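Retro notes - structure team

What went well: the batch runner handled both jobs without manual restarts.
What didn't: labels got mixed up in the shared folder, which is why I'm recording both outputs here explicitly, each with its sequence directly above its tokens.

Job 1
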Amino acid sequence: MDAKLILPTNWDPALLPRVAPLRPAYLYGALPREATVRSSLVLPQATEEDVAAQIAQAAQLGIRFTYVMNATCLGNREISEDGRWEILQRLEWLRGVGAAAVVTANPYVMELARKSTPDLELQVSVLAAVNDARKAAFFRDLGADLIHIDPQINRDFRRLESIRRAVDCRLSVVVNEGCLLSCPIRQYHANTISHSVEGIERRYYVDYCYYRCSLARNADVVEYLRAPWIRPQDLAEYEAVGIDLFKIAGREKMGEGASSHTPWILKVAGAYHRRRCEDVAELLVAVQPMVGLSGEAPAPWRVRIAADRLDGFLSFFRDGRCSLDCQRCSHCAEWAKACVSAEGRAAEHRKQIENDLETLRAGSYWAGTGER
């Protein structure tokens, strides 16, 4: 059975004809300057005309389009008359160009969307952190048509089942999340990126959180296995508890220009469509090597997660035995010995991250020049 996929777009006109045979349910994206949880520095460029053209192209192929407005913080601008007007204008434009849905993490924006453009499907972002039945019911009552569940509970089947029982709207899970499990700075990270446009303009933006998390993964590769991704081979486990759709993250460009990202989107989408892959790591987002503050390439460092050796790994979580107390539990650490391998100059890679973090702490960095 085909998996019902939600795919990112990079605005490459050649992308849609190539993913169409996979019959994705949705395509999603946003203008680079839109306040979302992806910095404009890592997003392919697109104009309103590009967006309208791709929405029309997708519609011809039977693919619905979701526009992303999922910033976790707008600095209260949404409450101001100007901010509210801008949101309403964006929603009206989306309806005019044929978008099917809008996804947001802001409950006030949700209410505006539901009242002003009721024909636009309302989707709740993963950044709303819907991780239990009570939260799911709250957003359902706001009019949610689709809830993208917090990836941090991807392996907590008890909670997934309780959410499914609590609401009758559709549910989605992100399948290729590479972020740290139960990340203590996740909310801060989302907030900093939500304000990245102003930070970039004033030349003080840098993704401090990505450096922090990269250091943690480099120090202990078991973190790659603990991350809340879902192996393509295990999608049926989620369908069994009532998950309707599988969202692939990855609006970030993987090179220069839109077309450089297309092969990666096709690779990941194909793996989840076929329900099979060999290396889980190559499907993940948030694990790509960071570039140093001065722009230098990082020391070579690559991790591989052997998918064919993971049969049975998920049973521990399906049986409800994970307490998130990793200091007292060795389940992931033991499996990592057989499934996770790393190659490259790990110590050099780690030293570079540590040096960059020290540069940030010392205040000797100025965005855009690498010096002060």
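Job 2
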Amino acid sequence: MDNCRLSIAVVTLLLLPLFTHTVIADDSEYPYDDDGWLTRIAGPERFALGDEFGCQGMPEVNPFENPDSIASCRTYLTDRVQASRWGASPITFGLQDESPDSTLNQSVGDALVTSGFHVSIGPSIGDGRIEAIDFDAGSLEKNVASIEAIEASMDDGNPVVLRWIAELGDLNVRKDPDVVAWIETQPFWFTTAGEYHTSRVSASITPNGSSSIILNQPPVNLDAWATPGTSIVSLTESTESGLLVESVRWMNGTDLPLLDEMDRHLRVGWRVISGDLHVSIPPGDKVEIQFNESIDEIEIRVGDFNGLTPMIVVGEHVTDLFEWSSGFQDSSIRFTWLIEPRSVTQMDIALPIIAAIVGILTVFQMRRLINRDDPTQFTHGSLFEQE
């Protein structure tokens, strides 16, 4: 009886991996295979670094033809990983093509907004509710990446946006190490699509005497990202020295951290650049800014973190997070990963048959060895001989 139970257990263990992925696929309206790296090793590591997880869609489904698939991709992602350190819900979706049919665009826009997406990667669909971020600086792939293309996109006042594709069909693609090394020496704010979008909220100013002001960062909804916003405070009429800042403090009197030129990942702090004050604080917070002299007229506007040029790198069609991220463990670059479940693998029927045969033969061999070398008989025989 014990041998029979052992046989069943061994065969079950051998066959289980072959059928696990098909169970996952059959549970969804849009069949898929799971990417375990989202919850194991790669996902937690990239999340801790500050990367963002967004959606690309369901495998082999065009969202313009089936907008309902947008919500399914969101569910797939939220069941496995948080979108960002600033917020749990994904807000970035990758749209590859702009549909010429405005009716289809409207349906996609409605589906994106209903599912909580505020940013689209790719050409705009003309929906004012969604910020479109398109690629303007090329890719990171070897023999494709271009320093010249990146430099050309640095002067237009918009983020530098690159794509990264680690697999083309069955081929693994290599990054361009020279271009990546050059990028990491440049004055970029390494950000993500969602982080950039949610950070662009300016604070308001309340006078606090002749040489002091209170900076108020507006709050956000409970389920929105709590991304620090960056404001630039400057004199209405510029002078040679600009603003002379004595201190920036929380309302409890604690100093706000001072940033330096090497701070290239979004965090709370302040820095004076060319006479303008750049301040980054979380939503709903306020700080007191003390100047060295009386201030007559100042103005405030939205700024980029630490006065740096924003760079957004987007990993497209990420079906294997480990493969996509493996070459960037020690990089300063932060990624927006557009997650797409894997297509269902067509399993050869011969594989489970072979596994079952191997499992049965293994069990019979184990039983033969156990019957030949019965440990109980060996123990009793030894005791009898000693007596």
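One thing worth noting from job 2: The chain has a mean pLDDT of 85.
We'll revisit the folder naming next retro.
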